[in-house]
């Protein structure tokens, strides 16, 4: 395959809470790319399966917003309803929906960023089987930052449910994950991504640490653009530093509010900052036994460049 050509799709692979909403919006402001919200399209083979898995949840919001914007040129309660009718063709493959959206925005290249895609290897295989010329951006975040962000989000939601006077601690929130250790999602997703990318030519994938991207966006965005064989001139890089210009850099209408990270929707400005250094061996504040990260998580994190 000629890797000097431009990709069919750009797929951001990462666990939840790894800045995927921000990065998709940033890449989507490049003159040759179009960043989507979370579509969940690759989590199911057909739209019948997609609706069965996601109807009644906010998982349908991102794709509804994308179709409303791309097909009907706006995101209103009315165009969201039109978009959902447009998506009610149960026999069509989810990949065909992605192709239809790609055709609508062409020659721009779609950027897709559903974190749950990395939770199961069949989701990853579905992408490469349907779009073999896609490029995969493995977006990393230190396991401490990723788990801490998930716990903080869960704490915020629980506080809304049970009252602001609850005084929840991280330990309390961690115990509400149904007996599942919250650090294991970081491990499972990244292990799946690493194993999947090892089956692909090296030119087809790139690894970027979110901490480095936020510390030096000019350098990292330039490297990403060059890897994708897209423009890397100063105006193109400057455009990517304004994710707030994305049509999805806000909450959607009342019938499709979500489609990504609510923190980004509330404040979509890129604010570069130096990375916070976390230890892999220090006691974790959400554990009662004073234990650090599990050995397999430390080993994978070190393999991915974290010390």
**In which range does the helix fraction lie?**
40-55%
Residue share in β-strands: 5-15%
Rough shape?
Answer: globular
Question: Helix/strand-derived class?
Answer: alpha/beta
Largest sheet strand order: 2-3-1-4-5
Write down the CATH class.
Answer: Alpha Beta
Distance between the termini: 36 Å
Mean pLDDT: 93
Corresponding CATH architecture: 3-Layer(aba) Sandwich
Poorly predicted regions are none
Largest sheet: 5 strands, parallel
Radius of gyration: 19 Å
Tally of DSSP helical segments? 14
Number of strands: 5
CATH H-tier superfamily: P-loop containing nucleotide triphosphate hydrolases
Give the total of domains: 1
Sequence of secondary-structure elements: EHEHHHHEHEHHHEHHHHH
CATH topology: Rossmann fold
